[in-house]
Amino acid sequence: MKYKAVVEIPKGCDKRIHLSYDGISFIDLGLIKEEIPINEGVMPICYGYIENIINEIEKDNLDVIIFSNKPYKTKDKIDIDIIGMINREDGDHKVIAVDNSVSIKDFDDIDQEERNLILEYFGYKSKITSIDNRDKTLEYIQSSIIQKNAKEGV
Questions:
Q1: Strand, coil or helix: what is 150?
Q2: What are the C-alpha distances in Å from 60 to residues 55, 57, 114?
Q3: What does the pLDDT look like over 76-125, one tens digit per residue?
Q4: The domain 3-152: what is its CATH number?
Q5: Where are the domains of the chain?
Q6: How many Cα atoms within 13 Å fall on the side-chain side of residue 51?
Q7: HSE-up of 154 (CA within 13 Å, CB side)?
Q8: In terms of pTM, does the model score above 0.85?
């Protein structure tokens, strides 16, 4: 199943860009390095959220990191395939996805150096507890959709 992701922070950007809580615009929250000094505060991968899916712990959109060979900008919408999820101690999990420009099927398919950078970067503020495979991640996403629909009375 394809999902739609929205880019907040493009790969190579040094700004913390986030969808405003009213969902109307994107806001600049300052330099990433003020929060995450890893990689000199530069986002090592395309970062955003999956449309219409809420992380119940955060009560915010479900975060996604996207492996791609394409240059994206903030607000771009991308068709993605899910390959896994980085689970963090604080519940701010990061779904791992790819677009159609790469042929990665699993997080372990990623170059070791790049994989280590991603884990160090996203594990800086909260310890990574596990990495789920595609099937377990899809179950998590499906349960998030069901919970969201139940709350909305769908």
A1: helix
A2: 6, 8, 27
A3: 999 999 999 999 999 999 999 999 999 999 999 999 999 999 999 999 99
A4: 3.90.80.10
A5: 3-152
A6: 12
A7: 7
A8: yes
